[in-house]
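name: query_chain
kind: protein
chains: 1
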Amino acid sequence: MLSKTGRFGARVCTAIALLICAVILLQNRTYSLVIPLAVAAGAAVVWLAFRFVKPGKGFEIGLFLLRFVLALVFILWLKSQPVQDFDTMHQAAVQLARGDHGYLQDVYFFNWAYQSAFVAYEALVIRLFGGSLLPLQLLNALWMAGTAVLVYRIAARLTNGKAAAAVSVLYALYPAPLFLAGVLTNQHLSVFLLYAGIYVLMSGSGLTWTRTVEAGALIALGNAMRPIGIIPLLACVIWLVLRALTGRNWKTLLRGLGMAASYFLCGMLLSALIVGSGINPNGLANNQPMWKFVVGLNQESDGQWNRGDYERFIVPSAADPEGVDAAMRQEVTQRLSVGPGKLVGLALRKSIGMWAGYEDLYWGFGHLDPEGEALPGVNWNSLQLLLAQAEKGLYLLAFALAFAGVLRRLIKREQTGADLVPVLLLCGYYAVHLIVEVQVRYRYFLMPCVFVLGAMALRNWWKEE
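structure:
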């Protein structure tokens, strides 16, 4: 009975992931000629990589260098400047690097104290290498290149070297994260650490206590940089639970609990370090946990950031944080009470807004004059449109491959192998963003997973030579 429950749970999650891929593909209707050309170019890259690339250590080095050089080109070309939250965190890091804790007077670091870990990371870099943006941006390029290698390694673990090489080369050329290469966002480091945790868990011939504990610690570190670690943690733990049920192996279940314990203990330790070092007396707390839900359930803004909610709730939080929190909880209850029809409609609009929109190039390009010359005879406005359309082509190709990979898994009735982890990750991340605030930029975290799922489509179709 338990084994049947595990197999049934795995099939249900796979079917949901297939539905998600289908919805995203259907919502991405477009009429630009550039997009199908980009799809064709991406498909050619996949074929050429399969045909001519030889997997191995040399390939990993080449993949790393390719992604690093591309990121470096965008960094030096765009010269992006910190904006909005990223500017707030960078200015705080500059102060912290010289021993000044004046940034704590900003209510931002009370409301969202969890940003303090990334501030500490930036402050350490500034202390070591000076106040220029370039060292932080170069580290961005390193984390991005490392993530490309992790895409290859995870895909190779789940499929074969040829399929993994094909999709990882495509990911190395995927431009959306490159648009953020010079942006001081916490996403680059967080994504690298979170996928490193996933890779450590599934690497090797069998599960061990050491790897489960290390995986939990790495995911906790990634969560400290950007607080989304609970999603990959749950994906991994649910996989271990379903695997334990299917094989009636209670040691696997205990290792899942050990991974969760490692995650939470490391999170508590990191928070205590932030408090003990004086970086923030609130540690890594989220003192306005309802904010993302308030925004995410706003029918008028389709779940996206809006000034009305900001002025109503966040502006007064400096004077009365507890009162604002209570008001937001009441508002969330009210917004959930509009009825299932309106909530489903909102969810569909949010899915379109996050998963069918063009990349928001404001973060990396916003400091540039739209009418200024980017290339001979081409202004920045026109170039941004072209880049966004090219990105959309590769994005659609990745999701089409992911759809095929998940469909293959469903047809083959595969059960609780490690390839269930990216399936669960897709389901969890998509579901969470039906409730909380959405931005196109938030797609960043999931895209390595999408490319890994794409490699599953090529498994056993293209054999090793």
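note: The mean pLDDT is 93.
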